[in-house]
Specification:
Order of helices and strands: HHHHHHHHHHH
Largest sheet: none
Number of strands: 0
Low-confidence stretches: none
Shape: globular
Number of helices: 11
Radius of gyration: 20 Å
Strand content: under 5%
Structural class: mainly alpha
């Protein structure tokens, strides 16, 4: 019964996510490869490419992930979506309807989190596909930038970069879901921004840099020999963070007076 209930909650939450206007803001991430490929193909002065050699389709997708991660705005949009999904429902008491109907709070928390994770992965897949489509539809017209090849010897590194950026968004969901049990949506957003700055600083300090998820993104984007190891460590890190944050979040929501 429990898995069934979880599936139902996840389905309801996904439906809510796709109906909300702020969720649609996340889809503007697809403009990154679109504008970038059009700009590069038309030799615009604003968008320039300074990579070594011509870029492959997977290389372009990876560059777009790194680009959208470094813009930070999408992390903020995502944390707002996550915060709204839980914090605002606690705030306006609409979560009570759920609790009265389902009764098992951990399923409500789990269903909401699962829906957000699926939503995030869906956007990641769309970003890869959009990058590849626009690479072949638009970017190939500029042979100085695009090689027209799907992938080359750097493919494992580029896929690792894509995976690490995806995982960082998943960690954002785990983290903000946990904060949303205690804080209001706007406060979640502010705290997340502060934590992001702290994580950024931590990723450059020896000794504690391994505790910062951004450290792994820096390592994979820097072409180093430790990419496979770092990706595995980051995968392990993400799983542990996910289990830990979810466990604490569920305990918090079970003790709350809702």
């Amino acid at each position: 019964i429990r898995m069934n209930t979880l599936a139902i909650i996840t389905k309801i939450e996904l439906k809510k996510l796709f109906q909300r206007k702020d969720s649609w803001l996340m889809f503007t991430i697809l403009l990154v490869p679109i504008l970038y490929s059009v700009g590069l193909a038309s030799n615009s002065d604003v968008i320039t490419y300074t990579g070594a050699g011509n870029i492959t389709a997977i290389g372009f997708a990876s560059a777009m992930f790194q680009m959208s991660q470094s813009m930070f705005i999408f992390n903020v949009i995502l944390s707002a979506i996550v915060g709204r999904s839980l914090a605002s429902e606690i705030e306006n008491k609409s979560i009570r309807l759920y609790i009265n109907r389902i009764g098992i709070r951990k399923l409500i928390y789990g269903g909401k989190e699962l829906a957000l994770l699926i939503f995030s992965v869906f956007i990641d897949i769309l970003l890869v596909l959009t990058s590849i489509v626009f690479y072949y539809a638009v970017l190939v017209h500029n042979p100085n930038v695009a090689s027209g090849i799907f992938y080359d010897s750097n493919v494992s590194m580029e896929v690792a970069q894509i995976i690490c950026n995806c995982m960082f968004w998943l960690i954002t969901i785990f983290l903000v879901m946990l904060m949303a049990t205690r804080l209001k949506t706007l406060v979640c957003l502010g705290v997340y921004m502060i934590l992001y700055i702290i994580m950024n600083l931590m990723s450059y300090i020896d000794g504690i840099k391994y505790l910062s998820p951004l450290h792994y993104i820096v390592v994979t984007s820097s072409n180093s020999s430790q990419i496979a190891l770092s990706t595995m460590l980051f995968l392990l890190y993400s799983i542990c963070a996910g289990i830990l944050f979810t466990h604490i979040g569920i305990r918090k929501i079970e003790k709350m007076d809702l």
